[in-house]
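Re-run requested by the PI after the first attempt was lost when the workstation crashed. Everything re-entered from the original request form. Ligand of interest: uridine-5'-diphosphate.
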Amino acid sequence: MELLYEGKAKKLYRTNCPDEVLMEFKDDATAFNGKKKTQFQNKGAINKQLTCLLYRMLEERGIPSHFVRDVDEIRIIVRRVEIIPVEVVVRNWVAGSLAGRIGRPEGTPLSAPMVEFYYKKDELNDPLITTEHLRELNLATDGEVSVIRDMAMRINGFLGEFFEKVGIRLVDFKVEFGRLHSDRSRIILADEITPDTCRLWDIRTGRKLDKDRFRRDLGEVMESYSDVLGRVSHALSV
Ligand code: UDP
C-alpha cells in the first residue's frame, strides 16, 4: 500500500478509491512539538475505537465527518480531504496554554466557550493566530472560517453533553477540518477525537484522563484512555 502521509500519531495510505484513504492509528505518543516521545502499547487501537464511536455519535447529530467505515483494530477508511492547516481549539475551562496567556489558574470555568485558531506549522511552534492572519495566509476564506467556528461550537455542545453523561468534564479539545476532495466547497470534520486531542477530567474526582498524563508524567496513561473508552462505549451501547 502506498503511504501518502505520516504524522506523529497516524499514517494515511492510498486505496483503490480516489476519494477515500486508509487511516492507521499508531502507538506513538509525542508532546511539546515532538521533543518528548514514547510509545504506548494499544494506544492506536484505543484511539481508533474512540474516534469511530465519537464520529458516529456526531454524525447522527448532523456533524459531517470524514469517517466512512471501520477496517480492523487500528485502521479505518476515511473520506479524502484537503486538510486546512489550522488547529481549532474549543475551551470550556482554563487549562494548558490558556492559563499562562490570560493569567487565570487551570480549572477556572470560562463564562462562555471560546474558539481559538492555531497555525499548524512545526517551524513556528503552532502559534495562536487571528482570523486576519488566516485571511492573510489564505488558509481559509471568511465564509469557511464562519462554517468552521459554527461547527466547532456545535461539536463542543454535543461532545460536552455526551461526556457529562459519563461523568467526564470536557475541559477543552482540538479539531481539524478539511475540504472534501470530491467537492472543495464542502468542509467536514477530519483527523481524530481522542484523549490525545481533548482534556478530559473525571467530574467526581478531578482526575485527568487524557494526554496530560503523558505530558506531565502523571503515570497510568493507558489505564486512563481505557477508562474513557469503557465509559464511551458503554454509553453508546445502551
Ligand atoms: N491540542 C492538540 N494538539 C496540539 C495542541 C493542543 O490536540 O498540537 C489539544 C490539547 O490536547 C488540549 C487543547 O488542544 O486539549 C488545548 O491545548 P493547549 O493550547 O492548552 O496546549 P497545550 O497545553 O496542550 O500545549
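Saved to the shared folder this time. The mean pLDDT is 98.
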